[in-house]
Amino acid sequence: MANLENATKTAEGVTVNGIVLSPVVEQCEGCNRLREFEGEKFCSSYAFPAKKWMGGNCNFATHIKVAVAKGAKVNPLKASKRAAKGK
Ligand code: SF4
After folding, report:
1. How far is the CA of 19 from the centre of ligand 1 (A)?
2. CA-closest residue to ligand 1 atom 7
3. Which domain holds residue 46?
């Protein structure tokens, strides 16, 4: 895992360019945006990983795939026209 760039440890915690970062959460495991700093893991894209997961999956995550519905896409409007024509 790559190191967190420009990170420094301050009284508030680990900061990058003056922004205090929170460590990643369990769901982040496997994400390519994980970075390490002094034994802790942080996100290279977002300061508060827990917040990214509060409303569902993190939209920056590289390790999850959005489930795609199986089968060909059917346009219901075209399908009904085809059915009306008897094709
Ligand atoms: S991009 Fe999302 S899933 Fe990946 S480390 Fe950051 S917060 Fe976690």
Report:
1. 16
2. 49
3. 7-85
